[in-house]
Amino acid sequence: MKRILLGSGSPRRKELMSMMDIDFEPIKLNDVEEVYPSSLKADDVPAFLSRLKAQSYYDNISDDEVLVTADTVVIIDDEILGKPKTPTEACDMLRRLSGACHKVVTGVSLTSTDGIVTFDETTIVEFDNLSAEDIAYYVEKYRPFDKAGSYGIQEWIGLVAIKKIDGCFYNVMGLPTRALYRKLKEIGAI
Amino acid sequence: MKRILLGSGSPRRKELMSMMDIDFEPIKLNDVEEVYPSSLKADDVPAFLSRLKAQSYYDNISDDEVLVTADTVVIIDDEILGKPKTPTEACDMLRRLSGACHKVVTGVSLTSTDGIVTFDETTIVEFDNLSAEDIAYYVEKYRPFDKAGSYGIQEWIGLVAIKKIDGCFYNVMGLPTRALYRKLKEIGAI
User: Fold this and answer.
1) pLDDT tens, position by position, B65-87
2) pTM to 2 decimals?
3) A31, A53, A145, B75: which is deepest, by most CB within 10 A?
């Protein structure tokens, strides 16, 4: 058993860790610039970024600690959709996702004095056709500016407009909970 | 626009209706004995039962109302798993689901003075191997006696032990939210 540190400000990740009955302590990491080599395939970016976040804390880790860092992206047509900065950008992203399948990839790094273990998981999400009214309603009411791809699967739009998913649901919310739980057991952290 | 009545005591269904931003009024239906013809295929049972619940209210429906009734079952090897009555039964069910795929089928009926519209939706759920300790922990702590198949996908076991789902996530919680939303639009209820 180790102390689990969660290096993420995401309220959804905190909620998921609690739902997994894991005791953890949220910590604030130093800001890292989330840049990656342009040669990197889109699918590999979240794992890379979760490791980048981990490295910023690596020198501070104690023997009895494991740090969890993660990054989630939405990928459509091999292009990464980040967090929208404006309502217009949010609406543009949702128009791209409308009536199509996209991938949600979450990369996770577990950091201990033994080193950094990194893995990722992909979930396929299929959206129904979204009308202009649906998109305007959602962006206005839910303001998805903290969400990659401009949507939360646990919000109105996820309930009324997602046709199906193939993979881990919680991965779309920000953590591949089953895979994370197994890895934490494997390294003796829980 | 009509008044939406929800004929279900399930707190999860109430939560899902609220998350869909639908104003609704929960109502208590007369108890109906949930029996079905033995010739009915397992997959068709939830639609049948949702209609049976609807029929108990049919004579009371007003012009401005739509009643939503639903039934959710877990099916494995063509056998329906209902709600467990005892901890032993709950553990037995979870042992059956361990390391295997099963189907979750929710049947929904929408009742108005125009008649009863019934539809259903299926989601495939794949469980990881569950250890005896996992099962005992879950049943003891979460007491899934109100849940078909002895589990809630939104609880600990759903996060740490479900490998993947194929279909609508919220269908597993008790309502095929996207399909329901579209049907309610189609009949002019919302």
Assistant:
1) 999 999 999 999 999 999 999 99
2) 0.96
3) A53
Candidates B16, B178, B184, partner chain A, best to mutate (most A CBs within 10 A): B178
Please give the full DSSP string across A145-178, using - where no structure is assigned. TTSGGG--TTSHHHHHHEEEEEE-HHHHHT--HH
Q: Quick: pLDDT tens for A150-180.
A: 999 999 999 999 999 999 999 999 999 999 9
Amino acid at B108: V
pLDDT band at residue B94 using 50, 70 and 90 as cut-offs: very high
Contact A99, A135 (CB under 8 A): no
Is the Cα torsion angle B159, B162, B163, B169 positive or negative in sign?
negative
Asked if residue A81 lies in contact with residue A23, where contact means CB atoms within 8 angstroms, the answer is no
Q: What is the ipTM of this complex?
A: 0.94
Q: Is the dihedral of CA B179, B182, B188, B190 positive or negative?
A: positive
The label of the residue with tokens 């990491």 reads A29
Instruction: Point out which residues pair with B111 in neighbouring strands.
Output: B67, B116
- φ/ψ of B23, rounded to 5, equals -75, 130
Question: Tokens standing for A77?
Answer: 């047509």
Q: Please compute, for residue A18, the number of CA atoms within 13 A of its CA located in the half-sphere on the CB side.
A: 8
Q: Please, which residues 80-139 of chain B have a Cβ atom closer than 8 Å to chain A?
A: 123, 128
- Quote the CA–CA distance of B104 and B74 in Å, as a whole number: 5
- In this structure, the strands spanning B115-127 and B101-112 are antiparallel
For the question of residue A71 being annotated catalytic, the response is yes
DSSP secondary structure letters along B119-172: EEEEEEEEEPP--HHHHHHHHHHH--TTSGGG--TTSHHHHHHEEEEEE-HHHH
Asked if B169 lies within 8 A of A178 by C-beta distance, the reply is no
